[in-house]
Amino acid sequence: MRHLLDTRTLSRDDAIRILDTAEDMAAAQQREVKKLPALRGKTVVNLFYEDSTRTRISFEAAAKRLSADVINFSAKGSSVSKGESLKDTAQTLQAIGADGVVIRHPASGAPERLARSGWIDAGVLNAGDGTHEHPTQALLDAFTMRRRLFGSGAGVSDASGSRGRDLDGVSVAIVGDVAHSRVARSNLWLLNALGAHVTFVAPETLLPYGARDWPVKIHHSLDAALRDERPEVVMMLRIQSERMHAAFFPNEREYARNWGLDDARLERLVDEAIVMHPGPMNRGLEISSRAADSERSTVLEQVANGVSVRMAALYLLLSGEREASI
Ligand code: CP
User: Fold this and answer.
1) For ligand 1, what atom is nearest to the CA of residue 134?
2) Is this entry keyworded Lyase (predicted)?
3) What is the pTM of this model?
């Protein structure tokens, strides 16, 4: 692996390699092996041009648990606010000797630009770019689904073969503001590669342009989707009001009534169903507090699993000889 830029071009084999490596990382942490020496002497830079809580902290924890040195760079308070370009910032990181750059950027395609530019030798990990992709979020979501649906240790070979390595036949409903969601896009491509059946549930104004040409079922009614698709995974998305034009958004009461996971809908989920949310959550809008805090909810497991998945990604990218591409 050289860079991790998206899940659209990530092969099923590479995805499963990351998920299985994340199982090893999780197992090491359960054995109280908090710190592994794998990236000793390497430098990882967290380059964040947009706000983040979970992703930035999780990448920092992951790199430190692999014994890497970590430099946190936030565009706010840096020379970016004086107009410094991505190229000049990248060349500064090259001069510092960065081995890995974790980048979050409001512009779709910025991580790929950095990776392909030749400005920097480091491995690039996309931590969310515009409305394009958020690949490690999708990987940690898939990891969480594997563990919840097939048990921890999913993906580890046993006498029955490979059950639980992928998500073959699992029904996943992704609900809400799909139009602005890089999480939804990364999940769609990854879940398809892993054999899951994905349904988007959203008002027409919150579906991305071109979604009807993607490998996904579309429902406008959450009640109909829950009844017809009987999803084992219900992934609620944050309403991204900061990216939204008022014309696209039904009023909040109407949105919660039609597309929110409220207490009544929570009761109607199939027995084994889990409820996911990438965070941060708008409680009472896209998800009720009861749903967010219920036993079905994986919200905090997703955060915890994110560290193992990001450890796996950093390890595969930065340890030893890097391969030509992923
Ligand atoms: N899920 C996610 O990307 O959260 P943050 O914006 O807090 O990183």
Assistant:
1) 3
2) no
3) 0.94
Sketch the domain layout of the chain as residue ranges. 12-133+304-318, 135-299
User: b/e per residue, 166-195, with b = 16+ CB within 10 A?
Assistant: bbeebbbbbbbbbbbbbbbbbbbbbbbbbe
User: Interface pTM (ipTM) of the complex?
Assistant: 0.98
Cα of 18 vs centre of ligand 1, distance in Å, is 20
Of the candidates 205, 204, 159, 210, which has an alpha carbon nearest to the alpha carbon of residue 188? 210
Indicate the residue type of 315. Answer: Y
Q: Tell the CATH topology of 135-299.
A: Rossmann fold (3.40.50)
**At residue 71, does pLDDT exceed 60?**
yes
Q: Do the bridges between strand 123-129 and strand 233-236 make them parallel or antiparallel, or are there none, so unpaired?
A: unpaired
Q: Whose CA is nearest to atom 1 of ligand 1?
A: 278
Question: For domain 12-133+304-318, which architecture applies?
Answer: 3-Layer(aba) Sandwich (3.40)
Yes or no: say if 164 and 16 are a contact pair by the CB < 8 Å rule.
no
Nearest CA to ligand 1 atom 6: 52
Nearest CA to ligand 1 atom 3: 55
